[in-house]
Design brief:
mainly alpha; 2 strands
Length: about 140
């Protein structure tokens, strides 16, 4: 059950809020509630499916969390949980918009661009961290 609330191993629990004996991932706590709320709000308010700013704003909103995550792989204590939650809120807004569109028109350009940006940042970080762990 703990994994569903915090996906961090014991040496990374400082990236979580502790509520009693439960750890909640700081970034996920900002991301998922905001993402689901954004999708629900757009559905309820009948938001338009397309807007010229979807692509640039959608990508800009996922960048802070992605960059913070990447930096955190090499400097784990660089930022605070409040910062992680704030970047998670931005991530939730960005994903909430792109997934709202995706639910009605699969694979919109904003979602594909977000995937490309996140993968373009995450893949080199994962490979570098993997190489470092194998060496030492």
């Amino acid at each position: 059950m703990t994994f569903w609330l915090s996906h961090h191993p014991p040496d990374e629990l400082d990236r979580c809020y502790r509520v009693g004996s439960v750890h909640l991932c700081a970034r996920c706590l900002g991301t998922y509630p905001v993402m689901f709320a954004a999708i629900a709000a757009q559905l309820a308010l009948h938001f338009p499916l397309e807007h010229p700013l979807d692509l640039p704003v959608g990508v800009a909103l996922v960048l802070p969390a992605t960059i913070d995550w990447a930096l955190g792989r090499f400097q784990p204590h660089r930022f605070s949980n409040a910062w992680r939650t704030a970047t998670g809120v931005l991530l939730g807004l960005g994903l909430g918009r792109s997934l709202f569109i995706h639910l009605q028109r699969p694979l919109p350009p904003v979602l594909l661009a977000q995937a490309i940006v996140v993968t373009g940042i995450a893949l080199p970080v994962i490979l570098t961290a993997y190489r470092r762990n194998r060496r030492g």
